[in-house]
Amino acid sequence: MNRRLMIVDDDDAIRETLAHHLNRSRYEVTTVPSAEAALSRIGELDPAVILTDVRMPGMNGIELVARLRELVPDVNVVVMTAFEDMETAIGAMRAGAHDYLVKPLDLDRLELTLERALRDRVMRQRLGRITEDAAGRYALQTLVGRTPAMIEIYKRIGALATSPTSVLIRGETGTGKEVIARAIHFNSQASAEPFVAINCTAVPEPLLESELFGHVRGAFTGAVGDRRGRFELAGRGTIFLDEIGDVSPAFQAKLLRVLQDREFHPVGGERARRSEARVIAATHAPIEERIRQGQFREDLYFRLRVVEIVVPPLRERKDDIPILVEHLIARIGSELHRAVHLTPAALQKLVTYRWPGNVRELENALVRAAVLSPSGILAADDIALEGPTDRLTDRPAEGDRLIDAVRRHVLQVLEQTGGNKRAAARVLAISRPRLDRLLARFEDPSQRSHDGIDL
Fold first, then answer.
1. Residue 396 placed within a domain
2. How many CA atoms, within 13 angstroms, populate the side-chain half-sphere of residue 290?
3. How many Cα atoms sit within 13 Å of 104 on the Cβ side?
């Protein structure tokens, strides 16, 4: 571990005293008399920690901290000063100092401070490597698609980068809600902080409170020690609550308190703990309907839905399927350590399938085919699907009238768009008033007897 330490102080006696003491504590100490000298030798010496005075001729210590943040952000700087005042302390920490000590220095406290600065640097470097890898896997490029709906999602992720506001992600199972949550986190200012995910339906209801908020020893049978919950583990990062629409009203009330007060109590604990984590929730459930039925709290819904992202099902963005397939095939081939290719007929089969399981089902189908294929070339017959392809269109029965075929097609498009008439009208290439007239005609038995229809 790098234990190189630079001491910056214009007082010769202080530099010599500190160097003598800290050399005995296994530091490799270099001393310089000014901020300018420190900056000129920073590249040569590569210190892990810098200990600097505040008041020096020329550039002062706080100005030095600010310059070091720009030049070597990986170095922790500890500021020492003979002047214990709020303005100096705030200025030092705002400039980016790791800690602040007041002269005359307590040498034991100085050593503890320097050791913390070293450990913090090592942990930050390790976390940085982990975060860099995770950020690569969950960067915006990992979200694949060029349809207008996906472009809007990318824009929203970018807008959330500088704001820690709560987010509600809605979409069918398998659409990639957690991938979007991770993209929000790893493209935000909190990317170096933890991302903690939990599927709320995967934990039994009696244990969910303990899982999220933690518990203290003796809180219940089996609680043999204190345990930190997911909110505490998330720190200042992100906690992702998947399937939030399926939790009980009793638990919703407890979650609402956390969002309102930013505090929570471990199970059996008396002291409140603070939560600084951003909350991202996701659900496939029809929340508005559950609110009407009294199964979901409206106030919690609005707390979670400060920003909402709606993920379209794969059947509504078929133009993205070839791009998704290319992305997934490349990743699968890398994991299997061999080339995987898709024939045009196989790709056509994938494009014409309705994908009720969305992107997750597509990925599973490709993985299954690639694993079982001896050659790595996937033909149409190698792709095993749950149901028939081209499930978006049904063959008309013999003797079908034109109005029956149109009615069936219009209702299928409405189903694809989740009942959104404006979107359905765009897909059908007709005006919204004309769509309303068609729907009214479908519902009127007296009109259904006519073959003629005005499109």
1. no
2. 19
3. 2
